[in-house]
Automatic annotation (TrEMBL):
The keyword DNA-binding applies. SUPFAM superfamilies: Sigma2 domain of RNA polymerase sigma factors, Sigma3 and sigma4 domains of RNA polymerase sigma factors. This is Sigma-70 family RNA polymerase sigma factor. The keyword Transcription regulation applies. It holds the Pfam family Sigma70_r2. Residues 20-85, 121-169 form the RNA polymerase sigma-70 region domain. Keywords: DNA-binding, Sigma factor, Transcription, Transcription regulation. Belongs to the sigma-70 factor family. ECF subfamily.
C-alpha cells in the first residue's frame, strides 16, 4: 500500500489553505446538516480550522488521515455548539434565518463520522486485538465461537478483547476524540 505524499504543515498558511480547500466544503456541509443553521455552520468551519492551526504541530499523519483528524475536531466543535445552543435557546430566535424544520442533530451524519473514527482507531490495534473486537462487538459472536475459530482458549479471546478495548480507547484519545 502506497503512503500518501506528505502534506504541508497546518501551522503554515499554505498548509492551512490546502487543508481548507480539500476539506472545508465537506466540513461545512456536515456542520450545516447537524445544526440546520448557515451561520452556525460557518462558525464551526472557522473554529475547526482555527483549532487545526493551533494544534497543527500535533497532527501526525501516521495516526490518522487529515480528513479524519479534521472531522474529529468538527464533531467536537458541533457538539460544543449544540450544547451552547441548548443552554441559550434564545440565540436561535434572534437569527434572521427561518428554521429548517430539521432536528439539530443529524444522527446519520454523526454515525458516519463516528464510524470513520472507529475504523481509523481499529487500524491502529494489533491484528489479534482488532479481530477479537470486531468479531465480539461488531459481529456479535460469542467468545467460544471466536476462540474455536482462532484455535485459542476462550480466556485468550477475553484477554484480547479486554486489552484491545484499552488500546482502542488510547488510540481514540490520541486522535482527539472526546467521549
Amino acid at each position: 500500500m502506497e503512503t500518501p505524499p506528505p502534506e504541508p504543515g497546518l501551522d503554515t498558511e499554505a498548509g492551512l489553505r490546502a487543508a481548507y480547500g480539500a476539506h472545508g466544503a465537506e466540513i461545512y456541509r456536515y456542520a450545516l446538516r447537524q445544526l440546520g443553521d448557515d451561520g452556525g455552520a460557518q462558525e464551526v468551519v472557522q473554529e475547526v480550522f482555527l483549532r487545526a492551526w493551533r494544534r497543527g504541530g500535533s497532527y501526525d499523519p501516521s495516526l490518522a488521515s487529515l480528513r479524519v483528524w479534521l472531522f474529529a475536531i468538527a464533531r467536537n466543535v458541533v457538539i460544543d455548539e449544540i450544547r451552547r445552543l441548548t443552554v441559550r435557546p434564545w440565540r436561535r430566535e434572534l437569527t434572521d434565518e427561518p428554521e429548517s424544520g430539521k432536528d439539530s442533530i443529524g444522527p446519520a451524519d454523526d454515525a458516519l463520522v463516528d464510524s470513520w473514527l472507529v475504523e481509523e482507531a481499529l487500524r491502529r490495534l494489533r491484528p489479534e486485538h482488532r479481530h477479537a473486537i470486531v468479531e465480539a462487538y461488531l459481529r456479535g459472536r460469542p467468545y467460544a465461537e471466536i476462540a474455536a475459530e482462532a484455535g485459542v482458549p476462550v480466556g485468550t479471546v477475553r484477554s484480547r478483547v479486554f486489552y484491545g478495548l484499552k488500546a482502542l480507547r488510547l488510540a481514540m484519545d490520541e486522535m482527539g476524540v472526546e467521549p
